[in-house]
Amino acid sequence: QVQLVESGGGLVQAGGSLRLSCAASGSIFSINTMGWYRQAPGKQRELVATITSRGIRNYADSVKGRFTISRDNAENTVSLQMNNLKPEDTAVYYCNTLTRGLGDYYVRDYWGQGTQVTVSS
Question: Which residue of 19, 85, 86, 112 could cross-link 95, Cys pair, CB 3.0 to 4.6 Å?
Fold first, then answer.
């Protein structure tokens, strides 16, 4: 089993910054892509940013230039630095990994429990 624990959400004014972190633990053989998704009330979950094990990054157009994703392969952590936050960034943010567990022959999707980010205008 693999567990993802997120931290760093909260309430911030528009234009402010927050940093989200996610730590993966458990029976891990390897982690491929790590990323962040978000879900606002009444909307579908959407991709925010992903990063591969080799450091290739992908961002949603809405966050390019404002958010930065990074990871520490040795610590199995992924972070999301969010700058110049806007009210439309308000959502529950979920950590996601494509992970191969010990004894597994394939990768699986794992999700964190979610952390609330609220941006006030």
Answer: 112
Q: What is the pLDDT of residues 19-68, one digit of tens each?
A: 999 999 999 999 999 999 999 999 999 999 999 999 999 999 999 999 99
Report the Cα–Cα distance between both ends of the chain, in Å, rounded.
40
Evaluate whether 6 touches 93 at the Cβ level (below 8 Å).
Answer: yes
- Strand 10-13 to 115-120 pairing: parallel
